[in-house]
UniProtKB/TrEMBL annotation:
Entry-linked SMART domains: HTH_XRE (SM00530)
Sequence ranges assigned to domain Sin in this UniProt record: 62-100
Domain of life: Bacteria
Key words, A-Z: DNA-binding
Signal peptide range: none
InterPro entries the record matches: Cro/C1-type_HTH, Lambda_DNA-bd_dom_sf, SinR/SinI_dimer_dom, SinR/SinI_dimer_dom_sf, TransReg_Diox_bact_type
CDD domains referenced in this protein's UniProt entry, alphabetically: HTH_XRE (cd00093)
Any one of the GO CC terms: cytosol
GO molecular function, one term: DNA binding
Annotated coiled-coil segments of the chain: none
Residue span(s) of domain HTH cro/C1-type: 6-61
UniProt-recorded name of the protein: Transcriptional regulator
Organism placement in taxonomy: Bacteria, Bacillati, Bacillota, Bacilli, Bacillales
Amino acid sequence: MIGDRVKSLRKEKKMSLSELAERAGVAKSYLSSLERDLQQNPSIQFLEKIAPVLGVTVNSLLDPDNSPNNVDTDWMNLAKSAMESGISKEQFKEFIEFNKWRINQK
């Protein structure tokens, strides 16, 4: 289960197994065994290393159904970028409404 989540997030980020292992500073063989469900109980320390590289929290790796990070990481990054640029929630909502209107005009 957790291995499937890690594999899915890794592929979503278009990362190879080797790349994730290298960036997180973990053993590729251990990561591979986790993704293949041979290892089912990774340590918190291991999860703390891979979670930030995958752009999620440790909690979302442990319980993806009960996490605010259920959203695609690209969407999360987009929302963060919008917030950092100073766009208000109201401006963002107005843009979405305008875009819906524009699509309906076609």
